[in-house]
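hey so u asked for the seq, here:
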Amino acid sequence: MKTIHTFDIELWTEPEEKERARRLGLDTTHGVFHALKAHLEKAGLLPEYFFELWEKTPAPMPYFDYARCNVDFSEPEDVYMSLELVSLVGNEWEGRTFAIAGIHGSSADDYLRMCRIAAECSLMFNGRGQKMEREVSEITLSDEENRVLRDALEILFDRQEPNDKERLKTALRLQDRLARLTEEGMVSQPVTAVMEGV
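ran it, structure tokens below
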């Protein structure tokens, strides 16, 4: 099980609250951006083309009601994302761009990978400091990687003692599940992710 510590980036009014935010580096746009970048990198989700703060000048973290991410094809060969901080101004919701990101590619897999990155960004901002548990590890396999994994597991299965075969049966069921998820377009982080418990 994995615990995700979302960002506690409310605008605090009490001096001790402001000091805590400053110590965590979450009181400025640059601090929050670098924390998000580090989180994405650790999760294997950092966009490989670019990931940039929209406003380069350091500034205090602004008030916002929620964060939203927009994903779209931009250039003929790229998928872009904008992360916006949305506030209710008068009677209308207004978005202010916080960061932008891009990955190379124009396939459905590329688009869905960027959507996964956007979901992680949204969770980190909209989680409001909550600690959230994840029980599912994600992995994405190409058709070739899927075939190689299946073959390797079957070879291992043939070599095991009877007591070890249950564990390998579980691994084969996992591999079948991964294959189904791949066919259904459930794309997430790269194949370098760890399959825990296999």
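Residues 186-198 have pLDDT under 50 and may be disordered. The CA atoms of residues 90 and 193 lie 45 Å apart.
lmk if thats what u needed
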